[in-house]
Amino acid sequence: MAVKQTAGRNQLGVVAPKFAELNDDVLFGEVWAREDKLSLKMRSIVTVVTLVAKGMVDSSFEFHMATAKTNGVTRDEMAEILTHEAFYAGWPNAWAAFRVLLKVYGEEADSGEGATFAPTFGLGETNDAYAAYFTGQSYLNPLISADEAGVAISNVTFEPGCRNNWHIHHADKGGGQVLIVTDGRGWYQEWGKEPQLLVPGDVVVIPEGVKHWHGAAADSWMSHLAYGVPGENCSNEWLEPVDDAQYPQA
Hints:
The protein is α+β, with helices and mostly antiparallel strands. It has two domains: 32-105, no CATH class; 125-238, Jelly Rolls (Sandwich), CATH 2.60.120.10. It is 32% helix and 27% strand. Helix 3 (40-53) runs antiparallel to helix 4 (59-70). The longest helix is centred in the N-terminal third of the chain and has 15 residues, at 17-31. The protein is globular, with a radius of gyration of 19 Å.
């Protein structure tokens, strides 16, 4: 199993490999992962406030605004944060930040948990065909069929607390699955190992024959792309649910 943040290496790996390493492995891999010290929601608020104070409302600011949304900062909370900060960081800086807020959150008021969650690859329909193998509500948005590209790729979205059962991907040759996390926060766990936190940009390679589960964090939605690695006689074996004692509540 491999879980990695790859944004830095993808964009700057050739030009500035050390910077890319520090971005992926230290900033996001260590600092942002210290949820026992500070929640992701609070880290997002601190980051947004700092960038506004510096007048940095570029594409990176839009990314952090979107991350704040994913990490549970509602539109109304963000509006109040920027209103408060305007008196300390400057009115023009706040105006610029509000333009990004409108782009990321839209103009509609919040209306309940998850109202502002908009997966990058679309929510799709309720995942009724596999509901028996999930605890909580999930959604499925097929993107590419095997007939089109030789491999089927779907976006799977989990409501907070939702996770699939323990399961195994079998194959006589090849097989397994790859997950690419696009939105929110979640967990991946292999049998006999500790759960691994998932955040956007993480890639999980699941070998054939490994018992595992994945799903959203208790306080966050989560979306990932999923596709099966081609192989011979591939099949899924669905097993027991992940009970509350096994599921991370942090």
